[in-house]
Amino acid sequence: MLAYRFLNPKDFKKPRSFCPKCKSYIKWYDLIPLISWFLLKGNCRSCKNKISYLYPFIEVITAVSLYTLYKNVSIPYFIPYFIFFSALIVTIRTDLEEMLISRYMTLFLIPIAFSFNLVHYLPLTFEETLTGTIFGFLFLLFISKIFKLFTKKEGLGQGDIELLAFIGAFTGIKGCWISLLFGSILGSVFGILLITFKKSNFSTKIPFGPFLAIGAMVYVLYQYQIINLIFGF
Ligand SMILES: [Zn+2]
Question: What does the domain layout of the chain look like in residue ranges?
Answer without folding.
Answer: 14-51, 53-231
